[in-house]
Design goal:
single chain; 113 residues; mainly alpha; 81% helix; transmembrane helix; Monovalent cation/proton antiporter, MnhG/PhaG subunit
Length: 113
């Protein structure tokens, strides 16, 4: 059973590493700040979650597993808020999304005080 747990946790950590690598490629290649924020968000949501789940499975004690789960929950709570705040601040400072034709968010913002 220990061999299966080690294999499962290693698989999850390698899969998380793949997500992190793909997001780094996205951060370099994407054209504007909004798509780059999206890539960074996926790195934390996908990559870090899988790595933390792998660490929780492999943890030698239940305290280590609980800490990993709490860190994962913290990431899940703060990551969307931070990425939304960054995107909204960029929009309010006039940074236009790359290649957009219709700005529905701008129309909605005009109605607000």
């Amino acid at each position: 059973m220990s061999g299966f747990i080690d294999l499962l946790s290693s698989f999850l950590m390698v899969l998380g590493l793949f997500f992190a690598f793909a997001s780094v490629v996205g951060l370099i290649r994407f054209p504007d700040v909004y798509t780059r924020v999206h890539a960074g968000t996926k790195a934390l949501s996908g990559g870090a979650m899988l790595i933390l789940i792998g660490v929780a499975i492999r943890a030698p004690s239940w305290q280590g597993a609980v800490k990993s789960v709490l860190i994962a929950l913290f990431f899940l709570a703060t990551n969307p808020l931070a990425s939304h705040a960054i995107s909204r601040a960029c929009y309010r400072h006039g940074i236009a999304p790359h290649g957009t034709v219709l700005d529905e968010y701008g129309e909605a913002m005009e109605d607000r005080p």
